[in-house]
């Protein structure tokens, strides 16, 4: 009953908002000129209660902030909110109620909430650093909230964090995330075809329907808080690829950007997806589409060209796709890291203590640390890295007892048989290598598969002589960036590392896969093909043998790039291009056509006028000489018809026109020579008559 009531109230409010965007359809039909201009701010910027928009018709005289300049507002949409949720212990429930005075840590009756400092979405907001910009988050919580608690949790998150939680039933979320996203989209986007049931999931229509349903629910949540004439909407990643269609269908002029954080495969791989055109058309309902690398953007453009017949061109340095009168811009910009957060972690006493511990454990025993940090994922190439370490110790026995590979394996995000098989293979490989090359007090490989705190991981970065990132396919991967900044350190860490205070020249070495998004940005790294175990082993040996001055030069070059292209630079650049891409919205006439996921918006110039039947009939009657231009395929006959002769009904209509008119000329575009010859013969006979 609560849901029905909320939905009913929302529909009333939404109707008022939608009417502004769809009024132009009636104007097109009538031939009247459309009206443009900024929408009066009668819709509240933030809802007080979930699903209920209060004060929709509020009198401007009673508005407290009517004289203040409005804030720019960005609605950031992703699968997960940048929020940590922890259920209270039974003994603590009831001891505290309401919101904490600290906005970074609030609670409801049963839950404690705090910001997730490691979330890219939160770092994005900090990177903007603009108090005039208001950020609203829409997404799911990592923990499942009971339906009886959802209303209260919604209220707390909205008021304290400006987050709009999207609550999904557990079975629907499982089919959407673990089913379609992780078993079908994720493998395909990483170049794994479902050639057998063991190699990725075969396409399942029910999982696709769950994916579409969740995207629709996200659209409904956004509807509750959006001001379509003013707000910018920024959607993140492959979980919400059809969301642009639902938003564009409701608001033709919504300012909409999409950024894909995973790879986009080549057209030969992508075209195997049964719903390939639906996803492409949905993405093209965005105003700006962002990719980490040029290759990912090129693959997307190639798919649009080959499957939809679209063309693209570069306009004043920007790549644009023409799509039904709209120009969809393409942005190529790799994401960066949050410099401030990482530098603050480097200054923590806990980090310094952990660094001293690692130095005692490895450096003072004369051992050099190589470091790998990866998710326990089939595409991270952990096993290949271990085999390369084995090859290094075999081909260069002088490194035995001197080099240690510390492999930090973060918990897997997905589920499935492939993850379990990879875990088993990793454990068995580590055991075999340690048994072969280990000795008392020395294991060549140290596998850490328990979750580490961020400061602990940073401490490993500080001590490691070389970082190895050998994923077989990855969207971006920011581990090398974090490693570079950590190796830059600070004065206290320099003292712990016993660097010369008069010449604190920092150094770092990277071995990175050529198949990850950050590789083109790190020109000083040693690039490898992770599938070539011998080449990776040689790269590891080269990284250990590089002279100190060259290590310093490589580090300086990398640090200069990473420190200037941080997450704030990435966010500001994307939003600037989004604003530029939406600049023509108010000067174009929009006409929504199509049903379902085939919906798109036709953008027309203001001078465009739709032909009305009354005007055509009136003009036809007034004139004495008429010319009729007819297409052939899909006009006089069906497009896919094997029989290229026109139907008897079409011929009857043409004959009637010829008999009843004294000065009528036909022009027909056709690929059938026989029909064209017949038409020309009739025209010739008519002229002679």
TrEMBL record:
<keyword id="KW-0808">Transferase</keyword>
<protein>
    <recommendedName>
        <fullName>Alpha,alpha-trehalose-phosphate synthase [UDP-forming] 6</fullName>
    </recommendedName>
</protein>
<dbReference type="GO" id="GO:0005829">
    <property type="term" value="C:cytosol"/>
</dbReference>
<dbReference type="Pfam" id="PF00982">
    <property type="entry name" value="Glyco_transf_20"/>
</dbReference>
<dbReference type="GO" id="GO:0005992">
    <property type="term" value="P:trehalose biosynthetic process"/>
</dbReference>
<dbReference type="GO" id="GO:0016757">
    <property type="term" value="F:glycosyltransferase activity"/>
</dbReference>
<keyword id="KW-0328">Glycosyltransferase</keyword>
<dbReference type="GO" id="GO:0004805">
    <property type="term" value="F:trehalose-phosphatase activity"/>
</dbReference>
<dbReference type="InterPro" id="IPR001830">
    <property type="entry name" value="Glyco_trans_20"/>
</dbReference>
């Amino acid at each position: 009953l609560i849901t029905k009531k909320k939905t009913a109230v929302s529909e009333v409010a939404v109707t008022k908002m939608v009417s502004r965007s769809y009024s132009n359809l009636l104007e097109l039909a009538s031939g009247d000129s459309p009206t443009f201009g900024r929408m009066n701010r009668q819709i509240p910027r933030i809802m007080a209660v979930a699903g209920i928009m209060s004060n929709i018709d509020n009198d401007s005289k009673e508005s407290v902030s009517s004289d203040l300049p409005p804030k720019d507002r960005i609605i950031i949409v992703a699968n997960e909110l940048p929020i940590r949720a922890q259920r209270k212990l039974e003994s603590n429930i009831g001891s505290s109620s309401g919101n904490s005075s600290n906005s970074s840590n609030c609670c409801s009756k049963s839950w404690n909430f705090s910001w997730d400092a490691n979330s890219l979405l939160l770092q994005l907001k900090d990177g903007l650093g603009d108090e005039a910009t208001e950020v609203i988050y829409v997404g799911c919580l990592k923990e499942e909230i009971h339906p009886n608690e959802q209303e209260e949790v919604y209220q707390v998150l909205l008021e304290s964090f400006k987050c709009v939680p999207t609550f999904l039933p557990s079975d629907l979320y499982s089919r959407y995330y673990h089913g379609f996203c992780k078993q079908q989209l994720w493998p395909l986007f990483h170049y794994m075809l479902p050639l057998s049931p063991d190699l990725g999931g075969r396409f399942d229509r029910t999982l696709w329907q769950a994916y579409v349903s969740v995207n629709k629910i996200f659209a409904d949540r956004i509807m509750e808080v959006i001001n379509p004439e003013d707000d910018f909407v920024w959607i993140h990643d492959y979980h919400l690829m059809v969301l642009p269609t639902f938003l564009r269908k409701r608001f033709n002029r919504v300012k909409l950007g999409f950024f894909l954080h995973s790879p986009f495969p080549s057209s030969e791989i992508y075209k195997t997806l049964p719903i390939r055109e639906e996803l492409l058309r949905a993405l093209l309902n965005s105003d700006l589409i962002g990719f980490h690398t040029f290759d990912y953007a090129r693959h997307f453009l190639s798919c649009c060209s080959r499957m939809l017949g679209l063309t693209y061109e570069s306009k004043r340095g920007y790549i644009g796709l023409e799509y039904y009168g709209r120009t969809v811009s393409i942005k190529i910009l790799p994401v960066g890291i949050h410099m401030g957060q990482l530098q603050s972690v480097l200054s923590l006493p806990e980090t310094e203590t952990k660094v001293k511990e690692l130095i005692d454990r490895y450096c003072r025993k004369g051992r050099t640390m190589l470091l790998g940090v990866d998710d326990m994922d089939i595409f991270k190439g952990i096993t290949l890295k271990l085999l390369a370490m084995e090859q290094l110790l075999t081909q260069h026995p002088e490194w035995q007892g001197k080099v240690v590979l510390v492999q930090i394996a973060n918990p897997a995000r997905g589920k499935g048989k492939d993850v379990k098989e990879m875990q088993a293979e990793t454990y068995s490989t580590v055991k075999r290598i340690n048994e072969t090359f280990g000795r008392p007090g020395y294991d060549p490989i140290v596998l850490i598969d328990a979750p580490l705190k961020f400061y602990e991981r940073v401490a490993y970065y500080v001590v490691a002589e070389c970082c190895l990132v050998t994923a077989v396919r990855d969207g971006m991967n920011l581990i090398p960036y974090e490693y570079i900044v950590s190796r830059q350190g600070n004065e206290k860490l320099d003292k712990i590392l016993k660097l010369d205070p008069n010449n604190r020249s920092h150094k770092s070495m990277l071995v990175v896969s050529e198949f990850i998004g950050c590789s083109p940005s790190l020109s000083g790294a040693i690039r490898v093909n992770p599938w070539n175990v011998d080449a990776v082993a040689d790269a590891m040996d080269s990284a250990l043998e590089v002279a100190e001055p060259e290590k310093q030069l490589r580090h300086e070059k990398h640090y200069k790039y990473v420190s200037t292209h941080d997450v704030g630079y990435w966010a500001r650049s994307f939003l600037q291009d989004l604003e530029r891409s939406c600049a023509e919205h108010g000067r174009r006439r929009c006409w929504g056509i199509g049903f379902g996921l085939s919906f798109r918006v036709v953008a027309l110039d203001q001078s465009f006028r739709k032909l009305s039947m009354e005007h055509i009939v009136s003009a036809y009657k007034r004139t004495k000489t008429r010319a009729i231009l007819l297409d052939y395929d899909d006009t006089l006959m069906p497009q896919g018809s094997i029989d290229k002769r026109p139907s008897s009904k079409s011929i009857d209509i043409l004959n009637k026109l010829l008999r009843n008119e004294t000065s009528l000329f036909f022009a027909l575009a056709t690929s059938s020579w026989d029909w064209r010859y017949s038409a020309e013969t009739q025209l010739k006979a008519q002229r002679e008559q």
